[in-house]
Amino acid sequence: MEFKTKKCKNCEKIFKQFNSLQNVCSPKCASEQKAKKEASKKPKEEPKDRKFLMLKAQSVFNAYIRERDKKELCICCGRLLGQNYHAGHFFSAGGHSNVRFDEDNVNAQRAECNTTHRAGMLGDYSERLEQKIGAAQFEVLRANAYEPKKWEIKDLERIISEYSQKLKDLQTKKNNSND
After folding, report:
1. I want to staple 110 with a disulfide (CB 3.0 to 4.6 A). Which of 37, 74, 116, 133 is the partner?
2. DSSP 30-58
């Protein structure tokens, strides 16, 4: 089978193909062509829909809370957090959207306090939270909890940016204090 001559897509020299799929004259041109193609690709943008951003914002916010409180005791039972602990909301994130990202509303909890025994722990959480943030701030939190809030995309993007930076700053500060 005879292959035709073709112009190289990289250097534009005329060459004789060895097979019908060959588009460049040499391995050097093939690697250059591949590099050009890779460089021209745009990086994938993350989707900007509200659901995706809400999950990302919650993840970043919770990571910040866990880092902030990792040396604290469990807000519910007062015991050491251990290895498996959560960023637990006093007012649930789903039912009280206005305080979903309120730092006073979210504190480190042992996993079992946040899941299995949650209903029995709210009284203890309430007492310890009021001691931690003060009675006046606790009343403000309680009042805000019942205000409905629809998080807009720009709000979620701001939260992601703000808490990513706060998390990074906190980790840097803790790493520097360990030196």
Report:
1. 74
2. HHHHHHHHHHHSPPPPPP--HHHHHHHHH
Nearest-angstrom CA–CA distance, 74 and 111: 9
pTM, 2 dp? 0.70
Q: Where are the domains of the chain?
A: 5-38, 50-178
43: its two tokens: 């990086």
Element (H, E) at 5: strand 5-7
Give the chain's largest Cα–Cα span.
Answer: 88
Inter-residue contact 41 to 145 (CB < 8 Å): no
Name the burial class of residue 87, with classes exposed (0-12), middle (13-18) and buried (19+) by CB atoms within 10 angstroms of its CB: buried
Query: Within 10 A of 127 (CB to CB), how many other CB atoms are there?
Result: 12
| Strand pairing category for 14-16 and 85-89 | unpaired
Residues in the chain, overall count:
179
